[in-house]
Design a protein that fits this description.
Two copies of one chain form a homodimer.
Chain A (H helix, E strand, L loop, with lengths): L5 H5 L2 H4 L3 H10 L1 E5 L4 E3 L7 E7 L2 E7 L2 E8 L3 E3 L1 H6 L6 E4 L3 E7 H10 L1 H27 L2 H15 L5 E3 L4 H7 L4 H10 L5 E4 L2 E4 L2 H8 L3 H4 L4
Antiparallel strand pairs in A: 1-8, 2-7, 3-6, 3-8, 4-5, 4-7, 9-11, 10-11
Chain A binds a DNA duplex (30 and 30 nucleotides) through helix 9.
Chain lengths: ~230, ~230
DNA sequence: CGGATCACTTGATTTTTGTCAATGCTGTAA
DNA sequence: TTACAGCATTGACAAAAATCAAGTGATCCG
């Protein structure tokens, strides 16, 4: 792998604190690949041979059962995915596909496990990362079980707004069909949900969403830090 | 804490491999308490002061929002809960209440974090535990997003049957109202779902469920290892 | 410039799920 | 024992969401 990529990987919390020798050892075994859009990188049930790091582009994590499909998360640069499967040396629970042209680092799982066993700093970083991931899924679970689809959309928009700086305009960063899947509804229903938020000042122009009256939307959405604040 | 409890706690994967001195140090700071049924042990959003270990009885992990409530998991002996919040020193994401008379060990979170920082074996055990928890929630998420309530119930029954040894009779280990909440439906709907499974050979006598024709139920339920096998 | 494709939207309809109200059942305590 | 509380069930209804079937609009490409 070209050393040019080392700094941005090293900058990730997961790799920031580990011993330099161990980091270099990991990097020596790793390689970078460029993928076109819509390529399936890994499939549910396959053995977890590599820990993946997204350097650019984006990756959709999804799952299928009985002819149905759902998106569970979208991975954006720079971050890793399928850490848990790598550590447990267990099969992937989700499939992954590129959404756009993406540059991805593949680190052999056995290297990760070996260094995890010897480098305490790395092990601690992994704990922190996993705890974070775990808490995120719990929040998603609560979102799904406690809210209607309209409420999920409203809170999603408020979260995006916050991420984007708090202004009234939110740009959707992926297709509506995928957003629908992430939010646990059909594309048709998402369309109707957007209309259902019009009375609360939400207007849609293609991929551009305007939150006309944030306070009004919040009165409806009732955002809650233990569901919506993904930083804690 | 009485030393009599040490062995069963030490037997947990989480504590099995750590240095004896560190284990004893953890235990010295811990204490055991007996709680009556229906006592709220912790509340969503509170700081995570203790790692909890259930020695006997059972604990319901649940969450509320906007007047609604949902059960996310049930903890049975002997196991721990709210490990992620303890490690991250972050607020609890779920509330917990005893379902029955329960004996619970409380280990101060700061002790856990301190030893996590110094004991590599303990840190590794925590990683394994967290990865396991993470994967369990992902499976629950897939169950919820990919299946109807009838399919969730059918697969739940098959999982329980397997846990109970594979015989045709499955004993529900908690109230139907709670099962309904865990499965993400109302009690009324659970009643109807049981009826909906009658054509596949499922009969209900109170808390006793008989799976008359396992193969038939499986044809309907289509259990999948990456959703239903909670051992991997 | 067509023509095709694909995402998105919209309306009509069905399915699924939740809500409300009434009833039965069971175990507990006076 | 009776009265009561709480859970489970049932039926009727309402709401939420999925499905099916067009139709619209944008983009890509020969």
């Amino acid at each position: 792998m070209p050393e040019a990529h080392y700094p941005e990987i090293r900058a990730l919390n997961l790799f920031a604190e580990m011993a330099e020798a161990n980091f270099l050892s990991l990097m020596r075994g790793a390689y970078v690949q460029n993928f076109p859009p819509q390529i399936e990188l890994i499939g549910e049930g396959e053995p977890s041979d590599f820990l993946h790091v997204v350097l650019s582009g984006s990756v959709d994590l999804f799952s299928t059962w009985n002819g149905r499909e759902t998106s569970l998360a979208t991975v954006r640069p720079v971050s890793t995915f399928i850490l848990a499967a790598t550590i447990k040396n267990a099969p992937y629970l989700m499939s992954a596909r590129t959404l756009e042209k993406s540059r991805i680092v593949l680190i052999p799982s056995q290297d990760v496990r070996a260094i995890f066993d010897t480098d305490g700093s790395f092990a601690r970083a992994i704990v922190t990362e996993l705890a974070q991931c775990y808490r995120s899924v719990i929040k998603a679970q609560k979102d799904l079980k406690l809210r209607t689809s309209l409420e999920r959309l409203a809170n999603y928009l408020l979260r995006q707004q916050k991420r984007a700086g708090g202004g009234p305009v939110v740009e959707l960063d992926f297709e509506k069909r995928r957003l629908a899947s992430v939010l646990g509804m059909t594309p048709e229903n998402l369309s109707r949900a957007f209309k259902g938020l019009q009375p609360y000042g939400v207007t849609v122009e293609g991929t551009r969403i305007v939150i006309g009256d944030q306070a009004d939307l919040e009165r409806f959405a009732r955002p809650n830090p233990w569901i919506d604040d993904h930083s804690t």
